[in-house]
Amino acid sequence: MASQGSNHMAAVREKLLRARQHAHEFRIGVARYMASNPDRIIRQFEEHIPEKSGRAGLTWRFNVESPPPVSLGVVAGDVIHNLRSALDHLARELVIANGANPRDEGRPRTQFPIVTASEQQPVIHTESGDISSAAQVLLEVVQPNNRPDHPLAVLTRLANIDKHRTILFTHRVPSEWFLSRREGALVRGNAT
Amino acid sequence: MKDGQKVSWLLEANDAYDPDMKAEPDFTTHILFEQAEGLEGFDPPVPAEELLTEIVNFTRDNVVQRFARACLGGAILF
Predict the structure, then answer these.
(1) What range does the domain containing B14 cover?
(2) Which pLDDT score, from 0 to 100, does residue A81 have?
(3) What predicted TM-score, i.e. pTM, was given to this entire model?
(4) Is A95 in the B-facing interface, judged by CB distances under 8 Å?
(5) Sign of the alpha-carbon torsion through A141, A143, A149, A154
């Protein structure tokens, strides 16, 4: 039987809860940063505008006066780490649930496989025994399979970055912009 | 967006853009944020499929859509 018994996925739940807490902290950090008005849209006259075939005119530039704090990247790394860890705990539980033994020492250790190429087969390595066939199907269904925007593919990429350095942010990514004449040329937008 | 990035194309692509309107030389941007979610308590044990789905969905909603674009430069997503 397994060397260490499962507690009904409690460890997985705890890791996910920690990820939620850090995500909450991240949102608060972003809200505080954005409340400090760290950027401005500046209007200026330019003699030569390449986008307008060299004609003169008004241009608008996004000006960052205060870059995002490094702490945001650290907290984002905590979110990533706990999600990745939750998956690894889940893999361990799948092994134990089938009466097999996870591999805690040596390589490859028991961890949740994320394969980004569809021709690769996801495998959970064990000390002895295997996961159930139903669990294997579950593993295969959830894989990114050549989709770089799949959540697990993104998670893997960010987890690899977070291993070696703090996650850095560009200033923002606009997703919606519009002008409000009522508020006097105010630019509003949703952003991350 | 990066510091100094020209955004005139963003404005001119918008139907509400009026190049002749009067405006202050500078103005700040305002960002709309969703309300932060409350922390959830400890749930009873759940099957692996449900828990895995929860992890993937949480990653999609809180990592991919929240900050992955901002730290991966949009290269892999859009």
Answers:
(1) 8-35+44-72
(2) 95
(3) 0.69
(4) no
(5) positive
